[in-house]
Design goal:
Helix content is about 75%, strand content about 5%. It is mainly alpha-helical and about 220 residues long.
């Protein structure tokens, strides 16, 4: 892997390891040995240590005394707790967009992202579908203008992406249902229909949660 000097090296290492955890290449409970990561990526041990601390803050890694770092477990309680929180964050973000959009141009980026979702769904590309889903969320950041909300969502994004991958790799057919939810959500935002927005997002998150729980049970 080639790293870019213009970006935080520790952040890039964390991103690389996060993708492996999110996709299930590194399993829950698997040890992440600093020396092996250092040698395989040809980076300093200090940068790897900093990357592991980033991943700990993002709930992908646990650092245990005298045992080092290991991939964080993903259990039903954690999945339910994560979605209970994400429902509220998603609703807060969507309500901000509904309150503050003023022209069709404001919503155009979200419609472009919908196109990307359709294409990745048609290609059966889970990685691209999950990334477009989060791009749709990020498109709302300028409307919320809330750095604390943005930081919270970005820190939780890897953990929620892990559950998305877990669910969709098991049941790829569900991507089309998720896409339908995104389309109806944008319609509700355009109509500034806050009760409908909340209902759509609650249903969307509950469905995701149940799929992730079912996938966990089948492992």
């Amino acid at each position: 892997m080639t790293f870019r000097a213009s970006e935080s090296l520790a952040g890039q290492i964390a991103g690389h390891l996060a993708e492996r955890i999110i996709r299930g290449e590194l399993k829950a409970g698997e040890r992440i040995q600093e020396i092996k990561v250092t040698q395989s990526l040809k980076v300093s041990r200090g940068s790897v240590r900093e990357a592991l601390l980033i991943l700990e803050r993002r709930h992908l890694v646990e650092i245990l005394p005298r045992r080092g770092a290991q991939v964080a477990a993903l259990d039903p309680h954690k999945v339910r707790s994560l979605y209970d929180l994400m429902i509220q964050l998603y609703i807060l973000m969507a309500h901000a967009v509904a309150d503050r959009w003023s022209s069709a141009e404001d919503l155009q980026p979200m419609r472009e992202i919908q196109r990307g979702l359709r294409e990745s769904c048609a290609a059966d590309d889970v990685d691209a579908f999950v990334e477009h889903s989060f791009n749709a969320l990020r498109a709302g950041y300028p409307f919320a203008a809330n750095p604390y909300l943005q930081e919270t969502i970005e820190n939780l994004r890897p953990a929620i992406a892990r559950t998305y991958h877990l669910a969709l790799e098991q049941r790829r057919s569900q991507m089309s249902l998720f896409l339908d939810g995104m389309v109806t959500l944008l319609d509700a935002i355009e109509a500034r229909d806050k009760p409908r927005i909340a209902a759509i997002l609650d249903s969307y998150c509950q469905q995701n949660c149940q799929l992730a729980l079912a996938a966990l049970q089948s492992h």
